[in-house]
UniProtKB/TrEMBL annotation:
The lineage of its organism: Eukaryota, Metazoa, Chordata, Craniata, Vertebrata. SUPFAM superfamilies: Protein kinase-like (PK-like) (SSF56112). This is non-specific serine/threonine protein kinase. Keywords: ATP-binding, Kinase, Nucleotide-binding, Serine/threonine-protein kinase, Transferase. Belongs to the protein kinase superfamily. There is a cross-link at K161 (Glycyl lysine isopeptide (Lys-Gly) (interchain with G-Cter in SUMO2)). It comes from the Eukaryota. The keyword Kinase applies. It catalyses: L-threonyl-[protein] + ATP = O-phospho-L-threonyl-[protein] + ADP + H(+); L-seryl-[protein] + ATP = O-phospho-L-seryl-[protein] + ADP + H(+).
Length: 303
């Protein structure tokens, strides 16, 4: 599945590191499962499980995603994982889950990832039912800044949803799971992908799409965080598609006017009419309510 000429894993692979911590070694090494103490499972997915892990020598804490090769091969998604690793290996942003390295054995692939102790945003949202303005605006600013950075690298995420957003040590948002992401130098694609409630109209219609599908998702995410359910949620998939295509949704009466304005200007059927990510960050409702911890990165992304 992963041949020796795979572009990320070579004998010159960099040692594991993060923005605040480095594992120093006298030589560059190839990793194996014996290098780690495996802890409790953090989550279970379609192709394997994510575990809390600790590197034996340095005691560095990370998340180890264990993927079964047989499951990937059966679903013919080897290329998707290769693409995800390629994309993640080049991204460095405080609101994007850090990818350190990977290794594999005869039956499994192991992804070495940053540990996000706050867990999934989805579970947090379930626990609270919906979030207050400050928390939602903070998340909107964080995800928008992360996406500006991704788009500057010509990467479209295409599957933003609470299940793919994690929470860091200080409660900061971490964009994860780039399985449906694509590196598209022209930022224009045609592949149908993503999650039903978050699909943009152009994807449902089968039209060519660009980075504005991520902008649409920010609007859907903002609505769901404030209200507790997605704006186009319906009993059946086809009905959801119909509501999305017609941009048919209603606000509960208690949603603040500033948030209504932001969401309405983001959920536009025509991609070019949606607020840009930079306009979302500068929107009065976001500026008033966001309490972001880390400084914005989008200024440097423009350079």
């Amino acid at each position: 599945l992963f041949s020796e000429d795979f572009p990320i894993q070579t004998s010159k692979s960099s040692p594991i590191h993060s923005t605040s911590y480095s594992i120093k070694r006298e030589f560059l090494k190839m990793w194996c499962i014996d290098d780690f103490e495996i802890g409790r499972p953090l989550g279970k997915g379609r192709f394997g499980t994510v575990y809390l892990a600790r590197e034996q020598n340095t005691h560095f804490i990370l998340a180890l995603k264990v993927i079964f090769k047989s499951a990937l091969e059966k679903s013919q998604l080897e290329h998707q994982l290769r693409r995800e690793i390629e994309i993640l290996s080049h991204l460095r942003h405080p609101n994007i889950l850090r990818f350190y390295n990977y290794f594999h054995d005869r039956t499994r692939i192991y992804l070495m990832l940053e540990y996000a102790p706050g867990g999934e945003l989805y579970k947090e949202l379930q626990k609270h039912e919906h979030f207050e303005e400050t928390r939602t605006a903070t998340y909107v600013e964080e995800i928008s800044d992360a996406l500006i950075y991704c788009h500057a690298q010509k990467v479209i995420h295409r599957d933003i949803k609470p299940e793919n957003l994690l929470l860091g040590l200080k409660g900061e948002l971490k964009l994860a799971d780039f399985g449906w992401s694509v590196h598209a130098p022209s930022l224009r694609r045609t592949t149908f992908c993503g999650t039903t409630d978050y699909l943009a109209p152009e994807m449902i219609d089968g039209r060519t799409h660009d980075e504005n599908v991520d902008v649409w998702c920010v609007g859907v995410l903002c609505f769901e965080c404030l209200v507790g359910y997605a704006p186009f949620e319906a009993p059946t998939r086809n009905e959801t598609y119909k509501r999305i295509a017609e941009v048919k949704f209603t606000f509960p009466t208690w949603v603040p006017d500033g948030a209504k304005d932001l969401i309405s200007k983001t959920l536009k059927h025509t991609p070019s009419l949606r607020l840009s990510l930079k306009e979302i960050i500068k929107h009065p409702w976001v500026k008033k309510n966001s309490r972001r911890i880390f400084p914005p990165v989008y200024e440097t992304a423009e350079e």
